[in-house]
Amino acid sequence: MAQAIDQLVHDLRAASGDTTDVEVKSAAGGLPESLTSTLSALANLPGGGTVVLGLDERAGFLPVQLPDPQALLHGLAAKARSYLPPVQLTLDRAEVDGRTVVVAQVHECDPSAKPCRVAATGAAYLRGYDGDFELSDLEVQGFLAARRPPHFDRAPVEGATRHDLDPDLVASYLTSVRDRDPRGLGRFKDDELMLRAGAILPDGRPSVASLLALGVHPQQFLPRFVIQASAEPRPDDPPGARARNQATITGAIPRMLDEALAWARRTLATTIVTRPDGTVVDEPEYPLVAFRELVANALIHRDLDHWSAGLAVEIRLRTDRLVISNPGGLYGITVDRLGKDAVTSARNARLVALCQHVRTPDTRARVIEALASGIPAVNTALADRGLPAARFIDAGIRFTALLRHVRPNQAEGPRLTRTQRRIYDALSSGPATVQHLGDHLDLTGPTARKALRALVDHALVVQHGGKGRPTTYSRTDTA
Questions:
Q1: Residue 441 parent element (H or E)
Q2: 456 and 392 in a common domain
Q3: CA separation (Å) from 36 to 41, 132, 196?
Q4: I need a labelling partner for 391 at 20 to 30 A (CA). Which of 20, 289, 317, 423 fits?
């Protein structure tokens, strides 16, 4: 346990915050009430998670003096029985910097019994990358649907006919099949090939998979199979701005991929870079190779069952990270095996099989390879740019990929709180007032001012004006 807790605390301090599967509480005043949602959320998380009592996140995960660790252990054991089904815990003590902390390993609830609910209220919770969230009725249906094998991509599309398939995409698909599988599927004539591939069903209707991969406009029948993309406002945007470059991207998967890349080129910040060969290029803040692979994965592997019919794939560009999420968790694989050992697993097997032979109209690139090469390609592209590896969060009914910037000036400097980091990142675009930062980041005036004072004390931010004059703040590296 000692080695495990030392590594866990090291990782938390390096990340400057909780992780998806670890929750830290100081618990100096007793068992925190907020653990009610946390235990449910971690029990619903694939692989479960860990709760550590006795560390103060605001102080850089330094240990605090716990007045009665034994009482905390008893309290956790009693609290675990207040869920349906009861939360299974492994409880222990450990030491951090010479002080006792309480460690609770929260075991994943059996999938056949998910979601784990708070018995008193009936509420169930989901772990996200930025907190615990109460499950909506639709998300509850997602857990119930996960109890049976997914075959929704094989279903017929009510009201659709073969005329709703794009002739160009179909022709490209047939050509690719014959080139890459000439003695297998490619040996059949067009109609029989489409039938045996599951693109066309015996009654002549297209399947959900073929409409998504080859359709003229799938959203006519599946209106929320779209990408919702937007970027967070910058501090220099007009007051009240909610988003930049908001877009709803539609079409078949190959066309959506091309348009998503076009959106990224318009939206991602770029830097002028001189390459070793002397050429000068615009380099986007995140590698487009990584962006494309993650968007393709979200489109191919999203849940297609009825519960998720109203949910979209989402792309959110924030000041310090890029977030790509889709309804439906991993299927047949865990996060720790993603991109390793050439392990592949497909929630939508028929859709994957079709998309292996589909090319995008603009770039003529294959949509996917299905060789477990996508995630390694993502992390290689990030490493080549000096960016951290992608972070993946499987919440069971939602999958999220996170890309982050490297902030070397913070990595070697003082440890900042989440609010301080958000304000510091927001000031990267230029000076801002307290009101502007509060409106932009949804912070109260006192909260923003307190964080700014700390940043000024750390010599990371400079205050301009004051004493009757307009007051603005800017980063010392841009002042």
A1: helix 434-441
A2: no
A3: 9, 10, 51
A4: 423
DSSP 141: H
Which of 52, 129, 124 shows the shortest CA–CA distance to 395? 129
Question: Which residues are within 8 A (CB) of 45 and not within 5 positions of it... i.e. 6 or more apart?
Answer: 20, 21, 108, 127, 394, 395, 396
Same domain, 40 and 170: no
**CB proximity list for 189: less than 8 A, separation 6 or greater:** none
Do 283 and 346 fall within a single domain? Answer: yes
**pLDDT 10s digits, 38-92:** 999 999 998 899 999 999 887 778 888 898 999 999 999 999 999 999 999 999 9
Contact 124, 117 (CB under 8 A): yes
Residue 253: CATH number of its domain: 3.30.565.60
pLDDT in tens, 184-243: 999 999 999 999 999 999 999 999 999 999 999 999 999 999 999 999 887 777 777 777
Q: Based on the domain organization, do 131 and 149 belong to the same domain?
A: no
3-state secondary structure at position 403: strand
The rounded distance, in Å, linking the Cα atoms of 87 and 469 is 57
- The strand order across the sheet containing 22-25 reads 22-25, 49-53, 99-106, 89-96
Are 399 and 457 in the same domain? no
Same domain, 128 and 153: no
* Residue 429's CATH number: 1.10.10.10
Show the tokens assigned to 383: 């490493």
Do 382 and 287 form a contact (C-beta atoms < 8 A)? yes
Give the CB-side neighbour count of residue 275, counting CA atoms within 13 A: 8
Q: What are the two backbone dihedrals, phi and then psi, of residue 432, each rounded to the nearest 5 degrees?
A: -150, 155
Q: For residues 100 and 53, is the Cβ–Cβ distance under 8 A? A: no
Residue ending a domain, among 404, 430, 463, is 404
Find out whether 13 and 60 touch, Cβ atoms under 8 Å.
yes
Question: How confident is the model at residue 193, as a pLDDT?
Answer: 96
- The answer to whether 332 and 352 are in contact (CB under 8 A) is no
| Structural domain harbouring 85 | 2-135
Q: Do 155 and 43 lie in a common domain?
A: no
Q: Tell me how many domains the chain contains.
A: 3
Q: CA geometry: angle at 122 spanning 117 and 124, to 5°?
A: 40
Q: Looking at the whole model, is its pTM more than 0.90? A: no
- Which one of 109, 135, 161 terminates a domain? 135
Contact assessment for residue 138 and residue 308, using Cβ atoms and an 8 Å cutoff: yes
Q: What is the DSSP string of 124-139?
A: BEEEETTEEEEPPHHH
Helix, strand, coil shares of the chain, percent, nearest 5, are 40, 25, 40
